[in-house]
């Protein structure tokens, strides 16, 4: 089965089926025509979670709470850059 963002009927025997919110193309003649509509993983972020990190830099304590993975990665890059100096 092929997973595609846009599914189309490839022959006259292909039929469209919608199950559990996904669109499927099923073919009775050619099994290679079987397709499923995929979901976009870029449209949403991973589940929200809170991470707590404690860093000691030059006798200063930083308590950082991260809500998304993007801010977490950005903060790690800043800390690594600061430690390399």
In words, what does this structure look like?
It is rod-shaped, with a radius of gyration of 24 Å. The strands form two sheets. A four-stranded mixed beta sheet has the order 1-4-3-2, with no helix packed on it. Residues 48-55 and 57-64 have low confidence and may be disordered. It has two domains: 2-37, no CATH class; 51-84, no CATH class. A hairpin with a 7-residue loop joins strand 3 and strand 4. It is an alpha+beta fold. It is 19% helix and 38% strand.
Q: Could you provide a short overview of the structure?
A:
The protein is an alpha+beta fold. It is 19% helix and 38% strand. The chain folds into two domains: 2-37, no CATH class; 51-84, no CATH class.
Terminus-to-terminus distance? 51 Å
Instruction: Give the domain tally.
Output: 2
Helical content band: 10-25%
Count of strand segments: 6
Rg (CA only): 24 Å
Global structural class: alpha+beta
Main sheet characteristics: 4 strands, mixed
Shape category? rod-shaped
Number of helices: 1
Q: Please write the string of helix (H) and strand (E) elements.
A: EEEEEEH
Keywords: Membrane, Ribonucleoprotein, Ribosomal protein, Transmembrane, Transmembrane helix
Pfam family, one: Ribosomal_L36
GO molecular function: structural constituent of ribosome
GO biological process, one term: translation
